[in-house]
Design brief:
With 336 residues, the protein is α/β, with parallel strands linked by helices. The chain has two domains: 7-181, 3-Layer(aba) Sandwich (Peroxisomal Thiolase, Chain A, domain 1), CATH 3.40.47; 185-335, Peroxisomal Thiolase, Chain A, domain 1 (3-Layer(aba) Sandwich). Helices cover 33% and strands 25% of the residues. It is built from eleven helices and 13 strands. The protein has helices at residues 25-28, 36-43, 57-72, 96-104, 120-133, 157-160, 214-218, 228-250, 267-277, 288-291, 298-309; strands spanning 7-17, 21-24, 47-50, 81-85, 110-114, 139-147, 165-176, 185-193, 201-202, 225-226, 259-262, 317-324, 328-335. A five-stranded mixed β-sheet has the order 1-7-6-4-5, with helices on both faces. The chain has a four-stranded mixed β-sheet with strand order 8-13-12-11, with helices on both faces. Strand 4 (81-85), helix 4 and strand 5 form a beta-alpha-beta unit. The structure holds oxa(dethia)-CoA. Oxa(dethia)-CoA (UT7) binds at residues 34, 38-39, 42-43, 118, 157-158, 161, 228-229, 231-232, 235, 265-266, 269, 293, 323-324.
């Protein structure tokens, strides 16, 4: 921004969209050898949403975007950057962000996707923040959207009970202001990656390293493979670290946090992080019971629900924190 007045990057609206179809634990127990008691006690998940066959990731993302634009009071033509975080794009190319542009009519936007698995939405927020703060763009739409039901091996009880579909979105803008009066203000960001651990959570087949063949598709190599226990440990360690780093950068402590909105993969991971941070349960937003793990969509969906339900209020310190395949992790601290 061409000025010496400090500029502040802010989230000015949120939206989300979840597909109608609910898949319960009891229904899953008819497909694989599992039961409601196991899924609930190990993960906290009771049900998840499944997109319709003809409902693509960009359809869900576009609906979340419309709701975010409405909440921000922004018209499609004002958006000049669209970033979609997803591991389930409509196609390899064009990017899902291009399809979102077409569906919402944001013809002035440059569009691209980000692939950072479950950390994708926070990677997207941080990328958009740089474009906005540099003055290169004025209004950004960042979406986390996934149709994970297309990547799940419905015969593998270790993974198929965990995931779901959905989308969330945020509209971002910069303001030339000392910052105190701007709601939704980003105070600090953290991002990290440890690619020594790519093997613990991945979809091995279906892309350039292992193009689809009848044989590997038969072995379900184009579906999610996860070492659950190891992933769990790293998720707790890295999300805790990312949370502490963001607080430190902003000169705050966990006692200042009004709401933690963590990636929703497992209730036990969320409570482990909250416990270690010293944040009480009433200050931890949880909706994994309703939607399961929707990867890049969990945080924007939860942020939108927290915003609309009044769980977060103007002036609250809100900590977003994510972890996913790569491994990747990220956190964003906001003054709502
Ligand atoms: O979004 C990215 C980050 N993702 C995550 O952070 C997920 C991290 N991991 C987890 O959330 C947990 O590790 C899981 C929920 C995936 C698994 O929970 P766990 O307590 O680590 O269970 P486990 O994998 O150690 O399996 C315990 C037992 C095994 O049986 P044996 O070998 O002890 O006889 C599994 O075969 O539970 C069995 N099991 C199941 N039983 C009933 C695994 N899945 C199921 C199931 N229903 N769906």
């Amino acid at each position: 921004m061409p000025s010496n007045i400090p500029c502040v990057c802010s989230i000015i609206g949120t939206g989300s969209y979840m597909p109608e179809r609910v898949l319960t634990n009891d229904e899953l127990s008819k497909i694989v050898d599992t039961n409601d008691e196991w899924i609930t006690s190990r993960t906290g998940i009771k049900e998840r949403r499944i997109a319709a066959e003809n409902e693509a990731t960009s359809d869900m993302g576009s609906e979340a975007a419309r709701r975010a634009m409405e909440s921000a009071g922004v018209k499609p033509e004002e958006i000049d950057l669209i970033i979609v975080a997803t591991v389930t794009p409509d196609m390899f190319f064009p990017s899902t962000a291009c399809f979102v542009q077409k569906k919402i009519g944001a013809w002035n936007a440059a569009c691209f996707d980000i692939s950072a698995a479950c950390s994708g939405f926070l990677y997207g927020l941080q990328t958009a923040r740089h474009y906005l703060n540099s003055g290169n763009r004025k209004t950004a739409l960042v979406i986390g959207a996934e149709k994970l039901s297309t990547l799940v091996n419905w015969k593998d009880r270790n993974t198929c009970v965990l995931f779901g579909d959905g989308a969330g979105a945020a509209i971002m803008r910069t303001f030339q202001d000392a910052g105190e009066n701007v709601p939704g203000r980003i105070l600090a960001n953290v991002m990290g990656t440890d690619a020594r651990l790519t093997d613990l959570l991945k979809v091995p087949g279906g892309a350039s390293a292992m193009p689809v063949t009848a044989e590997n598709a038969d072995q379900r190599l184009n579906t999610i493979h996860m070492e659950g226990r190891e992933t769990f440990k790293h998720a707790v360690t890295r999300m805790l670290q990312a949370s502490e780093e963001a607080l430190q950068k902003a000169g705050l402590t966990a006692a200042d946090v009004d709401m933690v909105i963590p990636h929703q993969a497992n209730h036990r991971i969320i409570t482990a992080i909250a416990d270690r941070l010293g944040v009480p349960p009433e200050k931890t937003f949880i909706n994994v019971d309703k939607y399961g793990n929707t990867s890049a969509a969990t945080i924007p969906v939860a942020l939108d629900e927290a915003n609309r339900s009044g769980a977060i209020k103007r002036g609250d310190i809100v900590l977003l924190v994510a972890f996913g395949g790569g491994f990747t992790w990220a956190s964003t601290l906001l003054k709502w």
